[in-house]
Amino acid sequence: MKPFELTSAHSTQQASQRWERHFPFLKLQFFTPLAGLVDDTQSQVPLGAWQDPTDRSARLTVDPAMSVRDFERLFQETFGLRVEVLRKMGYTWDDTEYTRHWTLHEQNSKGKELAMAFQAGK
């Protein structure tokens, strides 16, 4: 799996779609600095809208070998928007709080493994 880029020009919806093409068993949840969870009405707002107005051309290279902890930290530093990585667990999305030291690739692989086990157990 190759690294890919997220930029200030991407909306949260576009960033999520790009993310899910690379990590189908992981999901991003966005939080604004003041209002909390980014809802559907804000999904078209560019990531750059949450940053320092003097730097609206930020880029973040997402490497599957980076840890969830590092990705979440870099995302907030780059775009000024807090993000959480969730992993697929059957029909729900689980927080990765206790496995933040795992790489994005490991998290996605575990999500795939759990999805297959869930399907087999039906």
Features:
single chain, 122 residues, alpha+beta, 4-stranded antiparallel sheet, two-stranded antiparallel sheet, globular
Task: Map the helices and strands.
Blueprint: E1 4-7, H1 12-22, E2 26-32, E3 36-37, E4 59-62, H2 68-79, E5 82-89, E6 92-95, H3 104-120
Antiparallel strand pairs: 1-4, 2-3, 2-5, 5-6
Give an overview of the whole structure.
- Helix content is 33%, strand content 24%.
- With 122 residues, it is an alpha+beta fold.
- The protein has one domain.
- The longest helix is centred in the last third of the chain and has 17 residues, at 104-120.
- It is globular and about 50 Å long.
- The N and C termini lie far apart (30 Å).
N-end to C-end Cα span: 30 Å
Q: Runs with pLDDT <50, length 5+?
A: none
**Tally of contiguous helical segments:** 3
C-alpha-based Rg, rounded? 15 Å
Strand order of the largest sheet: 3-2-5-6
How helical, in percent, are the residues? 25-40%
Mean pLDDT comes to 89
The total count of strands amounts to 6
Biggest sheet features: 4 strands, antiparallel
Summarize this entry quickly.
This protein is an alpha+beta fold.
